[in-house]
Design goal:
The complex is a heterodimer of chains A (about 230) and B (about 90). Helix content of chain A is about 25%, strand content about 25%. Chain A has about 230 residues and is α/β, with parallel strands linked by helices. In chain A, the strands form 2 sheets. In chain A, strands 2-1-3-4-11-10-9-6-7 form a 9-stranded mixed β-sheet, with helices on both faces. With about 90 residues, chain B is α+β, with helices and mostly antiparallel strands. Chain B has one domain: Phosphoribosylformylglycinamidine synthase subunit PurS (Mth169, Chain: A, 2-Layer Sandwich), CATH 3.30.1280.10. Chain B has 2 helices and 3 strands, in the order βαβαβ. The longest helix of chain B is centred in the last third of the chain and has 16 residues, at about 55-70. The chains are: A alpha/beta (about 230), B alpha+beta (about 90). The interface of A and B includes residues 106, 147, 151 and 174 of A.
């Protein structure tokens, strides 16, 4: 049985079908979950995709945190379920307190839409399980508020606990310590600004994102009871 | 329950010191075009106003602070200043 992945759809999310398509083409069984849902189906992983949840009003992710589904997402994360936030989904996870830090406006006040190289720093998170450390991937970014920041104590903790999951090879947005993705202490919740779903097919110019999504499906599959 | 009173609240949200404020910096760089080159320390933020029913000043401030800290500002990157005044005292 393929791992089941719920892709959370907020009003204003716009990468949900890309995520469902990519996960499906890589062997997952993905479907959309409306943000108003108060309970979740039996999923093996959750993805919060990119876009502009609730119009990004106030701050990206600030209103989405209060969507009814987020209580279930938090409970799912607390129980160890794999949760990945991509771009706006990463912003939602930080606002919800499921990941530390915040995403501020890019250095230079520039919207950045380009393909960047990111380096995999950990092989033991929900999104990078089994991926060789040091692997460099070409994956698109597309954001205005992707400049990761946190206080010095949090940064020290992230480093000490090996929770920086991805780093930019050539920092495009001013992120502290070149951080492109981080995880929680349980390593099951991961947020990243790059869009792996947009680099998961040769037609899209890069299949490097498939490395991450395949690792997520592997993590999700490992959570399945043995057949 | 005690009679509640109406309060007017203003919350100002600014980026914390040390957090890049490219909008403020960009505004500052534009000012010399107006012939004003003595303007410094420009910071861009947000201002929110709302009305609130509360038992007294302390209750109003407490409620407004929850709104500011839990929603209007992200404490990781922003700080907020909350001002509460009774709405029923005519100016």
């Amino acid at each position: 049985m393929p791992p089941r992945v719920g892709v959370v759809l907020f009003p204003g999310t716009n990468c949900e079908h890309d995520a469902v398509h990519a996960l499906g083409s890589l062997g997952g069984d993905a479907e959309l979950v409306w943000h108003g849902s108060t309970s979740l189906g039996a999923y093996d992983a959750l993805v919060l995709p990119g876009g502009f949840a609730h119009g990004d009003y106030l701050r990206p992710g600030a209103i989405a945190r209060f969507s009814p589904v987020m209580e279930s997402v938090s409970a799912y994360a607390a129980s160890g379920g794999p949760v990945v936030g991509i771009c706006n989904g990463f912003q939602v996870l930080t606002e919800a307190g499921l990941l530390p830090g915040a995403l501020q406006k890019n250095r230079g006040l520039r919207f950045v839409c380009t393909t960047v190289r990111v380096r995999v720093e950990r092989d033991d998170t929900a999104l990078t399980d089994g991926v060789t450390i040091g692997t460099e991937l070409s994956i698109p970014i597309n954001h205005f508020e992707g400049n990761y920041t946190c206080d010095a104590a949090t940064l020290a903790e992230l480093r000490a606990e090996g929770r920086v999951v991805l780093r930019y090879v050539d920092n495009p947005n001013g992120s502290i310590d070149d951080i492109a993705g981080v995880c929680n202490s349980g390593r099951n919740v991961v947020g990243l600004m790059p869009h792996p779903e947009r680099a998961s097919d040769p037609l899209l110019g890069s299949e490097d994102g498939a490395v991450l999504l395949t690792a997520l499906l592997r993590t999700a599959g490992a959570a399945l009871p043995a057949a | 329950m005690a009679t509640s009173r109406q309060f007017s609240v203003q919350v100002e949200v600014l980026l914390r010191d040390g957090i890049a404020d490219p909008q403020g910096a960009t505004i500052e760089r534009a000012l010399p075009a107006l012939g004003l080159d003595g303007v410094t320390a420009v910071r861009a933020g947000k201002s929110f106003r709302f009305d609130l029913a509360a038992a007294d000043d302390a209750d109003a401030l407490a409620q407004a602070t929850v709104v500011a800290d839990r929603l209007l500002a992200n404490p990781v990157i922003e700080e907020s200043v909350v001002t509460v005044r009774p709405a029923d005292t005519a100016a």
